[in-house]
Specification:
Blueprint (H helix, E strand, L loop, with lengths): L1 H11 L24 H6 L1 H20 L16 H9 L14 H17 L8 H23 L26 H18 L20 H16 L9 H20 L14 H4 L4 H4 L3 E5 L9 H8 L15 H5 L28 H5 E3 L2 E2 L15 E2 L5 E2 L5 E2 L8 E3 L19 E5 H13 L8 H12 L16 H15 L6 H8 L2 H7 L3 E7 L1 H7 L2 E4 L2 E4 L10 H14 L3 H8 E7 L20 H6 L19
């Protein structure tokens, strides 16, 4: 499991600057500790610094996706959902593949927040209430992390063992999960009351740093909390009352956002469609990106976040490990919004990218996909560049075997900045979305579907997302015509969430929240799509390659005068000039579905593992905290 975590850290490059607009915020953050305690709470600057220290962890939490355990990053993770339980309950453990937080880290922050609330009453400065609003949000966030991971936990509302820098025992039993949810929503209600609100998308709040949480963020967070409260992870039998609360909260969010001018980003930038363009258009994307982690060159960059996962190695990228599984690719509908079996478009398994949901090509780079970057000052431009993930040998002075694509034959490209060449990686400053308007529509649709009286609203909430994506409206509802059954809608909504929010850190939590482990048991293994170079087919094409200023006809791949890059460039040029590139592709390659990692265990996660066990190290040092029922204890984290 530790190897898994290390791979993911390398993959997403968490050693990065987390905030673009607040370098000064974390300057000398510890200086308040050397002051007289009373000065910290009576001086606005010092109290602000005290609150600021929680922001780094906050944004790190939202970047930590655990996505490699899902269809989004399948390779090497065959048994991730099955094995984590054994690792979790080992002595001293506290962070597994699903773990969002640990007791020690969360309660350290809760202790500091309690210290804030015990002392802020002496403050008299004007920003006092705004700081309280932020602190209430941070408190809700800490407990929500714990509840999402473990269910009910001890609610600690005062500073325990104030004289001890690191108290080991809470000395309190676990509160019920319902009591925890009630406390979280109370904290968020207080945050909503105190936090300022922008007058519109991207509008700055006077005297308030743009990275700070605001009223709309707290509104969305509360709605998200209530949707978790209503979800199957805590309810064996659905609760209409809980789903109604969640529906009301998301409706309140949408009404507020609509009144302020928020909505879906629908602007194309030349040939770049809105679903991709919003990653480039920072100002315009604020209409949809209600909360985002912002990066600004030269103050900060997001190279560590996007480079390794979405940028090819020959363009300065990382290990090209962000590989979607064949199962994920199959979840995408066709261009008319229907699945491959019922679509009006014919589906070809060998050319699986044709006539698909337009988000497909904007999210994935498959073998032969166009993926063009500007040349660096010393390189020759390659306007017909393709992403090659095939296996095979191009023989020259040194045999060459292309094994990129992480073994599944496809790579993710979402969020990849294709306007920069490989010597400009320090300038990558792509923002990271945390909550988008599209997710508001998806969440509201999910809640509406759970309520018989509101189910008719679902299609109206989902069609704007598909219309923006470019799905054709052949049936009058962008592929949703004829769907009325609750179960069918649930499946479609969750699939739409997967597609629309893919690689944004949402899927792993949807799996837990809705207890969707049955999907993985049906998969059994993660699969990929492997393309193999057809030597005879390539030789027959007599392609032309430009080498050292000379045009050479490729008569055979075994020619010693050719390098792999020569051949790949020639293949890209030939496909670009062809009037029938699909036929040419089929001459060049043979394709088949493969098991991504046949040596790993069969996927067999258990529904009972949706919530994690309390780490045994906590049980040993804090005997009042008991283990959950699913792991041999007496505490029931569910409502029913």
């Amino acid at each position: 499991m530790n190897l898994y975590i290390k791979r993911y850290v390398v993959l997403l490059g968490f050693t990065m600057v987390l905030l673009s607009s607040c370098n000064r915020v974390f300057d000398d953050i510890k200086q308040y500790k050397s002051l007289d305690p009373s000065m910290v709470w009576t001086d606005e600057a010092f109290t602000t610094q005290y609150v600021n220290k929680f922001y780094s962890g906050l944004y790190s939490d939202f970047t930590k996706m655990d996505a490699p355990a899902t269809e989004e990053f399948g390779l090497w993770q065959q048994n991730a959902w099955t094995q984590f339980n054994t690792d979790q309950i080992a002595t001293g453990s506290g962070s597994g593949i699903q773990a969002y937080t640990t007791f020690s880290s969360a309660y350290s922050n809760i202790r500091d927040l309690n210290r804030f609330f015990e002392n802020i009453g002496v403050a008299t400065y004007a920003s006092k209430n705004k700081l309280k609003g932020q602190a209430f949000f941070m408190m809700a966030h800490q407990y929500f992390k714990l509840v999402k991971t473990y269910g009910g936990v001890p609610l600690v509302k005062s500073v325990i063992s104030a004289s001890s820098p690191n108290p080991q025992e809470l000395g309190q039993a676990r509160n019920t999960t319902l009591e925890c949810f009630n406390y979280i929503t109370q904290c968020l209600d207080s945050a909503i009351a105190y936090l300022p609100e922008p007058s519109g998308p991207g509008v700055a709040i006077t005297g308030y740093d743009k990275f700070r949480v605001t009223k709309p963020i707290a509104l969305i967070y509360k709605a998200d909390v209530l949707m978790w409260k209503a979800s199957p992870i805590f309810n064996t039998t659905p609760s209409q009352a809980y789903w109604q609360d969640a529906y009301t909260a998301w409706s309140t969010v949408k009404t507020w956002l609509d009144s302020k001018g928020y909505g879906l980003y629908t602007t194309s930038r030349g040939l770049t469609k809105p679903y991709t363009a919003m990653f480039y258009d920072k100002a315009g994307a604020k209409k949809e990106w209600i909360w985002a982690q912002e990066f600004t060159y030269p103050t900060s960059n997001s190279a560590g976040l996007y480079k390794g996962s979405s940028r090819p190695t020959d363009q300065g990228g990382g290990n090209e490990d962000a590989v979607p599984t064949w199962q994920l690719l199959q979840r995408y509908p066709m261009l008319d919004g229907k699945d491959t079996l019922t679509s009006t478009y014919a589906y070809n398994d060998k050319l699986f990218w044709n006539n698909r949901d337009p988000r497909f090509k904007q999210t994935f780079a498959y073998n032969g996909a166009k993926f063009v970057f500007p040349p660096n000052p010393t390189a020759i431009a390659n306007p017909n560049r393709r992403e090659w993930t095939f296996t095979g040998t191009i023989k020259g002075n040194h045999p060459f075997d292309v094994t990129r694509g992480g073994g599944t034959g496809v790579r993710q490209r979402k969020g990849c900045d294709t306007t920069l060449h490989n010597q400009q990686l320090d300038q990558i400053a792509t923002n990271w979305p945390i909550y988008r308007y599209a997710e508001v529509l998806l969440s509201l649709a999910e809640c509406a579907n759970e309520l018989d009286a509101n189910r008719s609203q679902v299609v109206g909430l989902l069609t704007p997302i598909r219309a923006r994506a470019g799905i054709e409206n052949k049936d009058g509802s962008y592929g949703f015509a004829g769907v009325t059954d609750k179960a069918a809608w649930t499946k479609l909504i969750l699939n739409e969430r997967l597609i629309e929010l893919v690689y944004e850190g949402k899927r792993v939590w949807d799996i837990k929240r809705r207890v969707l482990f049955g999907d993985f048991r049906n998969y059994r293994y993660w699969y990929g799509r492997q393309s193999k170079l057809n030597d005879a087919g390539v030789n027959n094409l007599k392609m032309k390659a430009s080498i050292n200023g000379k045009t050479i006809v490729i008569a055979t791949l075994s020619s010693n005068s050719l390098s792999a890059s020569d051949v790949m460039r020639a293949m890209g040029d030939t496909l670009a000039k062809s009037t029938n590139p699909d036929a040419l592709y089929l001459e060049m390659f043979t394709d088949k579905v493969i098991i991504a990692d046949a040596s790993a265990s069969v996927l067999n996660p258990h529904d009972n593992n949706a919530l994690e066990p309390i780490p045994s190290g906590i049980l040993l040092t804090d005997p009042k905290v008991v283990q959950s029922k699913n792991y041999g204890g007496t505490f029931d984290p569910k409502f029913n």
